[in-house]
Amino acid sequence: MKKINVQMVDLMGQYDKIKSQIDKNIINTIRSGKLINGPIVREFSGNLSKFLEVKHVIPCANGTDALQIAFMALGLEPGDEVICPAWTYVATAEAAAILGLIPVMCDVNPNTFNVTSEYIEPLISEKTKAIVPVHLYGQSCDMEPIMNLAKKYNLKVVEDNAQAIGCKYTYSDCEAKLTGTIGDIGTTSFYPSKNLGAYGDGGAIFTNDDNLAEKIYLAANHGQNKRYHHKIIGCNSRLDSIQAEILNVKLKYLNEYNNNRNIMANNYNLAFEAIKEIQTPKIIKNSTHVYHQYTLKILNNKRDELKQYLLENDIPSMIYYPIPLYKQEAFSKFVEQGFELTNTEELSKSVISLPIHTELENSNQDYITEKVLNFFK
Q1: Per-block average pLDDT, block size 10, for the chain (377 residues)?
Q2: Model pLDDT, residue 2
């Protein structure tokens, strides 16, 4: 029997379809010699700005830098508190802590995996300066109540949009915006496995505020707006031209990539809807979903057994995330001993993410669903 080749993300299948465009553009950029902040970086920035319908896009070296630069541009100072989810990748809180800010760990909705205004508001103190909603796994946080909360308490909002580029959020008045363009500043990552991924590291910061855009640009470029003229203390965080070439091509296909992820997610949902031990992703009524991850909750305390069973059948799976941020040694000084958040604890023991692809023909989805269903028989 032919061995099934199942991958979490099919980057090579995606590359094969756009190889001629990618290879040609990379070679042209190398030959141009304009490898840092070249014309293609500005072109990609403009194209992403049009896609997102946001005024300013400032590329940078990676998604973690994007968050750090956002905090710098807002003028946050050591000791200031920023509220962020405890259920997310480390970068969100790490970028705050590295600047001497205090990441205040917030619980999340157990069904959508995202922070909500009801969990955020009790954590607001006199030291709170910003809220950092993370649009986890590809779905928007419920942003209207969060923005209302920020206005009420005069707080800034930095959206971590690393997993949800292309996701659309609709307000109660029917106004729709793409995630990352709702708060004061939005950030994203172009890590290769992201929905819009480079072939190396990369990131970007978004804003509609001209003043913030200038500060972001300065912070990312050694504090200079003119060579050798440094207005502020900044850092060195730039998207290189080769990665910009790759992203500029892939941006044309981003809607197609997200649509294909939705097709796979819908197939999974239909396959698993009758299995009472599985909770498929829950979507809030005013958000789309771009399924950076397809994440299930396993309700019978057999998540780890399922993961092992899938591994034995050559199916990769991932647990995003096995350890809450407040239980990481790096953040121990920010919480009291024994600190726990109910929903975050539950999720760390119950979630599992299955492979999801932009290249449907390479997904082996029937094989994956068959094995999952067999496990629950």
Answers
A1: 81 97 96 94 98 98 98 98 98 98 98 98 98 98 98 98 98 98 98 98 98 97 92 95 98 98 98 97 97 98 98 97 97 96 98 96 96 97
A2: 57
Answer yes or no: are the C-beta atoms of 133 and 117 closer than 8 Å: no
**Contact indicator for 157, 210 with CB cutoff of 8 Å:** no
Question: Both tokens of residue 322?
Answer: 């096995």
pLDDT of 1 reads 43
Cis preceding-peptide flag for 321 (omega within 30 of 0): yes
Using CA atoms, how far apart are residues 130 and 146, in angstroms rounded to an integer? 11
Q: Show the tokens assigned to 346.
A: 């539950």
Residue 277's pLDDT is: 98
CA neighbor of 245 nearest in space, from 100, 36, 71, 90: 36
Q: In what order do the strands lie in the sheet with 351-354?
A: 278-279, 294-298, 351-354
- Supply the CATH classification number for the domain 254-375: 3.90.1150.10
Answer yes or no: same fold for 14-251 and 254-375: no
CA distances from 281 to 69, 254, 369 (A): 32, 21, 15
Q: What HEC string does 87-108 produce?
A: CCCCHHHHHHHCCCCEEEEECC
Phi and psi torsions of 55, nearest 5°: -70, -40
Distances in whole angstroms, Cα of residue 244 to Cα of each of 13, 37, 46, 70, 277: 20, 9, 11, 21, 44
**CA separation, residue 334 to residues 118, 250, 337 (Å):** 22, 40, 10
The domain locations on the chain are 14-251, 254-375
Q: What's the pLDDT at 3?
A: 67
Q: Residues 4, 367: contact at Cβ < 8 Å?
A: yes
Q: Does domain 14-251 have CATH number 3.40.640.10?
A: yes
| CA separation for the pair 207, 34 (Å, rounded) | 26
Q: What is the DSSP letter of 298?
A: E
Neighbours of 323 (CB within 10 A): 11
